[in-house]
Amino acid sequence: MLTGKQKRFLRSKAHHLNPIFQVGKAGVNDNMTKQIEDALEARELIKVSILQNCDEDKDEVAEKIVSQTKAELVQLIGHTIVLYKESKENKELVLPS
């Protein structure tokens, strides 16, 4: 689990990022989960946007992505999810302790 200090650090790092995935009418599927996992391995910190036409509740979408990718939910603000997962091979972010 991330501490408050680590979440603040990650939020500041994520601030300038653009969402690289969009969850729409189809919701979260296995293919999207796989792509999000790959992106997390490459970048560690990503944003996912939930479109207006998404039928699922944004909290459910965030929960589903987190449980399927084993990532950490840094923030859910508006319709944007910020996710963090430590990379095995491309580790760049050093979290404050």
Automatic annotation (TrEMBL):
A Pfam family reported for this protein in Swiss-Prot or TrEMBL: CRS1_YhbY
Segments forming domain CRM: 1-96
Sorted UniProt keywords: RNA-binding
KW Ribonucleoprotein (keyword) present: no
PANTHER family in alphabetical order: RNA-BINDING PROTEIN YHBY
Protein's name according to its UniProt entry: Ribosome assembly RNA-binding protein YhbY
